[in-house]
Automatic annotation (TrEMBL):
The chain crosses the membrane at residues 273-293. This is DUF7728 domain-containing protein. Coiled coil: none annotated. It comes from Exserohilum turcicum (strain 28A). Residues 1-23 form the signal peptide. Residues 53-147 form the DUF7728 domain. The keyword Metal-binding does not apply. It comes from the Eukaryota.
Amino acid sequence: MRFLTLSSLAAAVVAAASSPSSGQEHRVENIEAPPVKDVAPLITVVQKNKTYAVKFECVGCPFGVLRSPHEVQWTHPPPDNSLMLMFSIDESASALLLNEQRVFPLDPMPLRINALQVPSDLGKDQVKSSSLDQPERIKFPLQYEHTFFRGETDEGLWLHFNVTGLAWGEEPTPFTMGQKVVQMLLREDPAHQETDPKEGSKPALSIADVQVVDEKNSVQPLRMKCGKLAMMRTAFDPNEWDEYGQFGTWARTQNLVAGKLVSFLSANGEGNVMFFPLVLLVVLSILMARCIYHFRQQGSVGGASYTPFSLLGWGASPQYTPIPVIKIEEYD
């Protein structure tokens, strides 16, 4: 009897514990997970055949945030980050721009190109919006190689843009890159001619294809009968240039001498008016020497057979020479 009583009490306790009381309610809380970020792809089509945004992977690059115009806070370890390269056809459809700098036909050196650093998980909506260019983000000056050529088939012009490094970073020494290359196919439409006041009529340009590939897997140029590759390649490093030109070149020495003479004359004012004819003679001599040099260069290019210029067509610019323009100012 006692056993039955204990069993009944135990059953009543279990039933009371298992059955919900009338004053209690079961609440199921909905846990909302954060929305998945729509990360921008490596290549974003902003406007088909005209504007493309390339999120160029920067493996191991130093990542910093601008705290002031002269102070950078570096992140350790650096997160995955990329460089934004915006390729676009200009309004006249006669040139290709990269971050607002003309890269086809290539502008004269030194052509300084800066690229905005962004985190690799940048949202797709940010690529096309004005919020991309934020004050705290750094624009790095690029070391690069620029190559263009025609392929085996007559489908257009190929452009290779290879970021070989950053001119500066957390350390004073440049940061080396060069793992990938932007490969772009440009088409020329003879039916739509664009007239340039200096260069005459040229076919309208459009972007047919954009890829980011390993350099070893990129499209290769034709090989001429002389054995050389039919291409135009220009390498640029901002650390090798100053306001007078490229270090180690005779052209920079000429510009430096002419610039110092003009500065000396302008700083001393009327006391050195007698030296002005001499300075003017030196500057004019330098200009004449440069003109003769350019004339000979153009003659050698025009007279050679099977040169890259003859294969590349209208897009081929004059041979690269590290000679910037000297500005001559007159003083009373």
